[in-house]
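re: that chain from earlier
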Amino acid sequence: MIKIKSIIASIMLVFTLTQCNSQTKKTTTMETTNTTQTATKEIIVDVRSVEEWNEDGHADCSVNYPLDQFASKIEELKKYDKVILVCRSGNRAGIAKGQLQSAGYTKEIENLGPWQNVTCKTK
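^ sequence. v structure.
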């Protein structure tokens, strides 16, 4: 009987510690999320050509760094916490993502695909 009580007490202790640890992680995650939401510096980069940007339209909140000039902009992009990439279909944005990663950019990169997927946030 004492062994059973001891086993039950051990299980309860492990369960309690697991719950406390889980709650601590959730709190930390929420704090991190809140901090990230207010402090994230992001940029939306359209890697299509200047002609496509001008003639086919673009999102007003994006910048145009054509893929053939993209490598020269990577140091500037390293200042951002998140880089969102777009083009016509997502293919060139994927190439740009690879270039960023190869250059040592370790923060968040998102390939949003076509530029029409961009939703500009109003301030």
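Strands lie at 42-46, 62-64, 82-87, 108-114.
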